[in-house]
């Protein structure tokens, strides 16, 4: 018998706020420096709070029952484009919230409204954040476990009578600096925006009847266990939450809203399964529907049935089916499934029949529902040594730009501008390179088709030179760029269906920085060069010249030198659009798997490190990594085979990505990228010598026309 002193612990839960973009940029959008600084400070500090004295001084402008955490929460949600009134209305309409939890969100909404009305230069205008986040729509849902902060979402942990944000107080000098800066901004913003709301009225107060001022809290609650949870789950993948969230939702609906209908279904399933437990009945029903979906090839049926089945299994196993890896989840799911008495006899047979199909379906569902990025060492960790040159800038422009039809003679004039960024350049040398990408061998034009080389400081009349070496100046000063022009004649019929990439490299010594190198490239397209299903597209923003050239080079290299891999990526049919989208991308690359922009790119990571597109090797590396995420969707069996690979965990993490085996989908993509091209921040040696098991698997399975994917 259970002791009368036994205390039933409440089930922990979390509330997730996700801002979903509703538009994409069709024209180049300049980054707003105030927005970028604001977001960077929040990334560096993550969590901050005002001291008790400051809160007491500002109490006339604050909610009466303020705890203190709401200030940091408001800053984070505001930075993601969330509007105050939207949050208040969503909180009011969310029936799963308790009164105290809803009050926490009302407080947060009011503080966002304060930020919207603050008139200080450090706070971005709400419309700027709304546009920068692609006009997001706010969604609030329950989750069985927390999600670490992501670019478009924030989680809160349910406490006894309030919500606590899953935000961790970052450490280090940068964090301390950002935290102090944010405290100062918050103090000024609350006074500025609060005074305005007191004079003109608050829409949030009108919507929620929230009480402001006179009795604002004089003590600010400190961080509790939520911080530790945020740290522990810092690398969790949010997508598997959907299965459990849906499972929990199914449980709620079955008990509260659909009870009369489900009562009859429950009786029927009880006869079929021999089970009285509703969760097991739903698991049986969901996984049966999933198998039917596999049989008829219906991905929606697989996804919905799998979510219901595995969500119910998550409830059976008290959360064993969680984001600990695809196979761990499936193992727990199968174990719970086989606990159903009706299935116990058929257990050994069902393991052989269901494990692999369910795993493939899960991977497809997860990849279809989510997006992947290419950061070094995890989210928000910048790759070392991948900076653009700080001393030399080289710009190259062709005129006309093309593209051109086949069988036509074209004369292209190239203009190269070389600037000294931080002091006069000396000991200068030039290198000219040209390469033709086609299904046949072809050399680039040379003299006499490479002609009319003219060069000189921009302030002077250019002179004619026979070669680039002869045009090399003694110095290039910071206030007088050096300009070179030349012509190239492409004879009709000689370059049909080709991509010609023309590169100019500058080596020079800068003050206190000898041996500097910078380059620029331009591409010319004739007809239809070999690009497979890839298309460098302007669907998000216009590609800058050198970035476009390096991405086109990467596409042609991948298609021509790794044709089996490219064929697998393209096996899903349709175009794989490659978009330049610096506003949306945080870490060089992002696979979103939508028709308009399948993969999005930026040259600069969210921590300010450049080189993702300006470096040709990095462009090829990123393209391969993100294409691997597309491959996971169209050929999920390769991911399954990779996760079965014997010995792979012993080689992880890669030196280019510190996440280890907690994200096997990222490890798979990183493996393929390293097989094709190591990035500029490579750790030395060869991929084969450092990671022989991964190299062997990539070569015989992923990159082979006759794949052997055995473990």
TrEMBL record:
Keywords: Membrane, Transmembrane, Transmembrane helix. The chain crosses the membrane at residues 282-307, 313-338, 345-367. This is Lysine-specific metallo-endopeptidase domain-containing protein.
